[in-house]
Amino acid sequence: MGKSMSNLHFKAMALKLQLRDFLTPPEKTLREAGIKPGFHVIDYGCGPGGYSLAAAELVGAKGRIYALDIHPLAVERVQRIATERGLANIATVLSDCATGLGDNSVDVVILYGTFHGVGNRARLLRELHRVWKPDGVLSFSDHHMKEDAIRRAGTSGGLFRLLKKNKRTYSFVKVVHK
Fold first, then answer.
1. Is residue 2, in this structure, part of any structural domain at all?
2. Could you read off the pLDDT of 121-137 as tens digits, one per residue?
3. Residues contacting residue 138 through CB under 8 Å, at least 6 positions apart
């Protein structure tokens, strides 16, 4: 990711995203990612956690959500809400890129609204490619980017190919190099 925002900016963004989640429940967007019970999912740039918390319900007790963000308030908030709701399947990761996960360990990567602010995009895409299972899905959406920029970003470096454009997201699949 890029530089972390101020605490005040994060709190204002969190309020705006709570309104977004009220108007368009995260579950509607997450359906396009094909998340199933037992899946392991990274919510890269989780922010205040709307998608992480909704995904935790979808993957169930046998699944795992890795809520990753560069901002300490983001991971603190997600962890607090997960604890309050009894969601033991959420792990928070404070990082700008490195996930700390093993190779081929993640079924779905959700990358919503954050890619435009990522400083080293090639590094991020390599990390996501590394941890992502060969049959996994990258669910990508960023309202700050135009369609052609999203397509180029997702396929740059030859690590992913576009599977389909959904109503709210783009689904990319991993290119496995032999």
1. no
2. 999 999 999 999 999 99
3. 108, 109, 111, 128, 132, 154, 160, 171, 172, 173, 174
